Amino acid sequence: MAEIHNQTRTKRITITKTKEIRIKERKNEKEERSWGGSRRKDDEEEKKMEEEEEEEKEEEKDKKKVEQEVRSRQNEITKNHKY
């Protein structure tokens, strides 16, 4: 008797879990379809991240340019230096 009760209980639990999963999937699909609030927030966050990445790339380029200038000046100094 207890075994039958446990089996029906586990069936109920699995059914409710699958229903919850389906509901979550439907909500996600609705959010993806609509260009509503959460989707816009995600887009804004993506834009901010892209802008930050671009700024970092520009900073790296500037650093490389400065390093090259320093190297070239050092090379000129060593070439012009008389022993």
UniProtKB/TrEMBL annotation:
Location of the region described as Disordered in the Swiss-Prot/TrEMBL record: 1-83
Amino acid composition bias (Basic and acidic residues), ranges on this chain: 17-50, 60-83
Protein name: Uncharacterized protein
